[in-house]
NAD(P)-binding domain-containing protein (Streptomyces gancidicus BKS 13-15), 252 residues
Amino acid sequence: MTSIVVTGGTGTLGRPVVGRLRTAGHEVRVLSRSTPPYAVDLREGGIALDRALEGASTVVHCATSARGGDEQAARSLITAARRAGVEHLVYMSIVGVDRVPYPYYRTKLAVERQIEDSGIGWTVLRATQFHDLLYRLFQGMSASPVMPLPARVKDQPVEVTEVAARLAELAQGAPAGRADDMGGPEVRTFESLARAYLAAAGRRRAVVKIPLRGAAYEAFRAGGHLAPDHAVGTGTFEDYLTKRLAVTGARR
């Protein structure tokens, strides 16, 4: 039985990754900032992180924060992983981090480079945006009677459990370097996705498309965050909405 550490193991992606690995028979240690017995702040590292990594052969790094700190957390994790003799470091990244000059994407790319230069066997999987991200985005945008959307932008959302299955598969194999990108089954306009959300949530809103400025917006508009040649996901946004609203028991 292999010992595998999953950082961010209580998050949207981490939970199904942990479930997949445990079902496959591995001992999985779940790292998060507040969940015992491995409550660890990766930015600080220290004895708690060393204890969590002791004897582990593989680390699946799912922990991330759009509020910052990812590069510091990666440095701490890599240093501790070297001390512990970890053989395989698996990182979850985003399609387009090398093409879209968005601050969070730049951070993800910097972490990729840290992992590549770590001296540890590594695998990086890039995926398009999860359905959950769009759901929360549209939920916030539809709070007012007028729903503003960035003009001429498309997206390719993917089902998180499918990404988790692929990440768990990669974690159980040998270091693979850059794995093939993973995208959702459909490249769709932001407007069509927003209208699907409104219909499923039972909300009537005026949709207004707003042209934006800046290099990041231009890169998104050009499709730098899409992977049409790797549309391997099967779950659609409508599939996700049906499941999400059935679970919540409410039309939101």
